[in-house]
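Section 5.1 Outputs to date
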Amino acid sequence: MKHRYLGNSGLKVSEICYGNWITHGSQVENETATKCVHAALEAGITSFDTADVYANTVAESVLGAALAGQRRESLEIFTKVYWPTGPMGPNDCGLSRKHIMESINGSLRRLGTDYVDLYQAHRWDYETPLEETMQAFADVVRAGKALYIGVSEWSADQIRAGHAMAKELGFQLVSNQPQYSMLWRVIEEQVVPTSEGLGVSQVCWSPVAQGVLTGKYLPGQPVPDGSRATDANGGANFIKRLMETPTLEAVQRLRPIADELGITMAQLAVAWVLQNQNVGCAIIGASRPEQIAENVAASGVEIPTELMARIDEALGDVVVRDPGLTEQNTPKSRPC
């Protein structure tokens, strides 16, 4: 497993990070979730990503229990704040000082740790002044409850504003967590160049596009039993937009490229994300322990320039590139 620096900080993270969105506390049983975490550790993964909103806080508890007994100093644990948790009261979401302070304490309790390595604003909060949010993050850092601060799905302008205010307050904004894959490249035009100039890394979620880039969903064929596309707890809804026939046909055109490299299509997808040097790590999930070993094999894979060009040709116009979608997909009012 290779490691990369997160932004301009001295923190190194495993370039493949294990995340438990959708899976822990909902899609898979706790025993299986624990086996997946242990498989990640055995594969050399040291970075683990979660959020308080996942399974309404349960995912954090599952991850904390699975990591219990590990040497804390050898891990990098990430979590997030913004989306609703608890009974959906008026202050149970957003980036207000109240919600951030209460949320970090809850996350630490559930994760069974005194601090998280990276605490992330899960979205931009249009209803809270940026000054309030960043001051709260500064105080969280000074209290030793988080070592570094990041954001998730912020636009280039938002990252620029947050980075400047963090600097004024004496701490560094080191990362942004966007969706990024061969099929979803909305960060490339604005977010990545801005981040490179500021010393901010991307912590990318869904590098395999909800499993679509594994090639297991065939155009015109029934979806495999037990796949995310059959998950009524949320997975099927998230993957729906990727299941259109032109997209599935384009994905199948990637198979010869993966074969030429001697890797699976899932490994090709993860390796493709890691070719971008602004990427600090790619987050993978798993519903079975054996999936971990397959994805980890993407670490260190180099895709030649000519094959990167063939990937672009194979996918054609099914790739989504509009940089405006980052802001469009962020709620304009608090979702609680």
